[in-house]
Amino acid sequence: MTADRKKVLVLGGRGRLGRLLFRVWGAVGTSSFPVIWHSRRSPIDDSGDWVAWDLLKQGPPTCLKGGINTVLNLVGVVPGGKQDLSLNRELALAATEAARVLGARHIFHLSSAAVYGDGKFGWHEGVELYPVSEYGRAKLDMERAILSLTSSANPSEPRQVLLRLGNVVGADQLIGGAVARGAESLVQLDQFPDGLGPVRSYIGPVTLADVLQVLLQRASCVPGLPPILNVAAPVPVSMDSLLDASGAAWRWRCAGEEAIQYLRIDVSVLSGLFSFLPRHCQPDQMVREWKRLSDA
């Protein structure tokens, strides 16, 4: 980071992923950079440096101007909620405007591996995109809006980086949803005609926090971060192995016609920036990371 240690602003600190990162980085941020946490409403607790405003209705607090180096935008609408998925585009544009007003040099947006659709072989960042879900199409619409800004931006505007994130244990619908809620009924998992279940590119929450810390540092020190970056552990995992590692009670169900068995992303570019270890790819380690944060 630069010598003045300007802060990182995390938008969406009250979301499922934001809460996990808050537990990793803590109230004061990391040893590398201090963090300011944003929420639309009240903060998680009294610890930490929090600000609150509605991105779609208000501008950022004036007290932040000139003190933010990088914005990490976690704000978004996920499947199964009450909000329209198309809001992902508007929220990303609002986050970009906030970064511009604050004088930030960089803004990272969370996109999703869902923009790729499906596929057993890893998708790299340069392929054509064919999302098959409404969520994937909404995230692609968001990406296009951000990339259109990037193509016309002048050097004084914040540099945009899109992170196509795989599933994060604890922030996903499987472990962070059904398992974390302790559903009274068994967790049900799709089983496909070959007898196997879904396979996805995953990452543990602590490992993700470490990856993000490296990227946030590199953004300030090395201006050459790519505009789009896949983020996950290098080896995909079966979702049934995650359920077994979590100790949850579960059973198979027949996969529907629209169910996706494989979605794997290629993280070769990321692996050149972050040194993954074999344990980062192990389902039991990913679940241990989530449980450690859940017990904190």
From TrEMBL:
Signal peptide stretch: none
Database matches in InterPro entries: Epimerase_deHydtase, NAD(P)-bd_dom_sf
One Pfam family here: Epimerase
Gene3D superfamilies membership: NAD(P)-binding Rossmann-like Domain (3.40.50.720)
Domain NAD-dependent epimerase/dehydratase: 8-172
Domain of life, per lineage: Bacteria
Entry protein name: Nucleoside-diphosphate-sugar epimerase
Source organism (scientific name): Shimia abyssi
